[in-house]
Amino acid sequence: MKEELFDLIIIGGGPAGLTSALYARRSLLRTLLIERGPIGGQVLYTDLIENYPGFPDGISGFELIDLIRRQVEKLGLEIREGEAIDLQDLVKYKKVKLANGDELTAKAVILALGAEHKKLGIPGEKEFTGKGVSYCAVCDGPFFRGEKVAVVGGGNTALQEALFLTKFASKVFLIHRRDAFRATPLLQERVRANPQIELVLSSVVEEIRGDSRVKEIVVRDLKTEERRSFEVSGVFIFIGFAPRTEWLKGKIELDEQGFIITDREMRTSMSGVFACGDCVSKKFRQIINACGEGAVASLNAEEYIKELEHAKV
User: Fold this and answer.
1) What is the pLDDT of residues 109-123, one digit of tens each?
2) Contacts of 211 by beta carbon, 8 Å cutoff, 6+ apart
3) Helices (H), strands (E): how many in the chain?
4) In CATH, what number is assigned to the domain containing residue 204?
5) How far apart are CA 184 and CA 29, in angstroms?
6) 99 and 247: one domain?
7) Is residue 294 part of a domain?
8) What residues make up the domain containing 68?
9) What is the C-alpha separation between 63 and 3, in angstroms, rounded?
10) 251, 290: one domain
11) What positions carry a catalytic annotation?
12) Which of 59, 112, 168, 185 could hold 17 in an S-S bridge, CB 3.0 to 4.6 Å?
């Protein structure tokens, strides 16, 4: 078993975690960033980001993450692949246990865990995942050239991905359980103006059918209770995100949905542990506020470490 001591451990390598690391390394803290998947998180799969300051023509998620990563790596950030499965409060220090058995000790911890796509939980969804069911239009959209696909959801992500899919699909059915979208007015305007997108509102997908791949979906109208079948080759699901916080239950305070509760300084209920980004309980989840929270978390972690060291002296 390998034990190491750091000033700061950051768990999660999305925009929030990378920004935390940027501030921490500029303060010369011995910092370790742990990420279980590719650095960048969900942002990697965003085709075009138009609301991040400094890029008047927009920027892809991959390009933005690449720029931020290069910036922090120039400062000597240590990045390690691994999955955190336990967090212990040792009063003076915090211990993070990884799935591979490593135990890492730090004076402070920042949780930038992000969130993962919610599932519909309907027949056929699990069976056809990777066989027509997808949660990433950027990844899988090119496989559906000239074919009909369905997008499920009504927020910004769903509408952005529906627009992206019109580059490849001949028809996009945009299915939403309400009669109005939650997305920004600009995206709604673009969607309604696109002749390749057909709106299917006040409706839910009840079943995904096929053989070796998706062939059709069954959709129920919530107002009339009428059921219809749509012939599609792909189903793209964007109905929100769930935080990756199951392993923290009973250790720090979470809200009813599992998001981490923090104060305005990004402090959690465990002393010396901070949180930022999509895993935090809040109203809006945008790249820009994830980065801001990452900076606040890092600055407060630095203050906490200084107070801890002063108390030891």
Assistant:
1) 999 999 888 999 999
2) none
3) 6, 17
4) 3.50.50.60
5) 39
6) yes
7) yes
8) 3-117+241-312
9) 35
10) yes
11) 136, 139-140
12) 112
pLDDT in tens, 210-262: 999 999 999 999 999 999 999 999 999 999 889 999 999 999 999 999 999 99
pLDDT tens track for 143-162: 999 999 999 999 999 999 99
Find all residues with CB under 8 Å of 179, minimum gap 6, and list them: 201, 202
Q: How many residues does the chain have?
A: 313
- Tokens (6 digits) for 153: 């959801």
Is 80 exceeded by the pLDDT of residue 26?
Answer: yes
Task: Name the amino acid, one letter, at 290.
Answer: A
**Is the domain of 66 the same as that of 137?**
no
Question: Among 219, 237, 255, where does a domain finish?
Answer: 237
Total domains in the chain come to 2
Residue type, 88: Q
Query: CA 283 to CA 22: how far, in whole Å?
Result: 25
Tell me if 104 is assigned to some domain: yes
Quick check: helix, strand or coil at residue 75? coil
- The residue from 204, 237, 270 where one domain ends is 237
Mean pLDDT across 179-189: 95
Distance between CA atoms of 114 and 242, rounded to whole angstroms? 9
CA 238-242-243 angle, 5° bins: 140
User: What single-letter amino acid sits at 7?
Assistant: D
d(CA 276, CA 237): 25
Whether residue 124 is contained in a domain is answered as no
Measured CA angle at 114 (ends 111, 116), to 5 deg: 145
